[in-house]
Amino acid sequence: MKKVLMLSAALLFSAAAYAQTAQPALKSPDTQKPATTQAPAPPPFVDPSTIRPKPRPNDVKSIDSIVDAVYDVISGPPGPRDWDRLKSLLLPEARFMPVAHRRDGQDAYRIITIDDYIERSGPMFMKEGFFETGIANRVEQFGSIAHVFSTYEARREKGGQPFIRGINSIQLVKLGDRWWIVSIMWDTERPGIAIPEKYQKSSQ
Predict the structure, then answer these.
(1) Phi, psi of 103 (to 5 degrees)
(2) Are 163 and 154 in contact, with CB atoms under 8 Å apart?
(3) N- or C-end of the chain: fewer Cβ atoms within 10 A?
(4) Whole-angstrom Cα distance, residue 69 to residue 186?
């Protein structure tokens, strides 16, 4: 009996010793090094002027001129607009972001591309006159970036009474000797939300 017990003990000892040598020692979490991952290289820069319609030189020579060009190209009597001219002002990645306020009190917004804007607004422009005019620009600029709070009025006919007013928040970048529009977000004046006096006059 004693020999059987001794043999069993020896077998257990041998199994334990084998388990320790067969398995690698576990490292403490503090000593484990995270696997290194290499970030993918950014895509090569593509000059937007090579894939956008050629602009009118006077449209893009300054911040004020490119903002005025946006108003000019979307304004007019019922009929088509010069969409190539509008695209020549905008980066290919540019976005329009209208903010809306529904009758049930819910605020909403959309983020759309220039092609979305053309698809949505084009049919309306064909049927109705639309004239949007900037009445004041407040410009902030540093280096090659700029932001414009452009207060506007919109009319159904040139010289008519404005049916709506609002502010376009326009972001721009200067590449080389010209300006590009990066994005335009806008909101409208409505009961309880009037355009402050400071945004009704231009400043640099």
Answers:
(1) -65, -25
(2) yes
(3) N
(4) 17
| Helical segments of 23-170, H only | 63-74, 83-87, 114-127
In this structure, are residues 175 and 193 in contact, taking their beta carbons and an 8 Å threshold? no
CA 137 to chain CA centroid, nearest Å:
21
Q: Which two tokens stand for residue 94?
A: 């540019």
Three-state SS for 151-204 is: EEEEECCCCCCCCEEEEEEEEEEEECCEEEEEEEEEEECECCECCCHHHCCCEC
> Is there a domain that residue 185 lies in?
yes
Task: Report angle CA 50, 52, 54 to the nearest 5 degrees.
Answer: 90
For residue 121, what are the domain limits?
Answer: 48-190
Read off the DSSP letter of residue 77. Answer: S
Q: What's the CATH code of the domain at 59? A: 3.10.450.50
Evaluate the CA torsion angle 72, 77, 78, 79 in order and state its sign. Answer: negative
Residues 122, 106: Cα–Cα separation, whole Å: 27
- Is residue 121 in a domain? yes
pTM: 0.78
pLDDT in tens, 5-23: 333 434 333 444 444 444 4
Tokens found for residue 24 = 């690698």
CA 118 to CA 114: how far, in whole Å? Answer: 6
Provide mean pLDDT across the span 19-30: 48
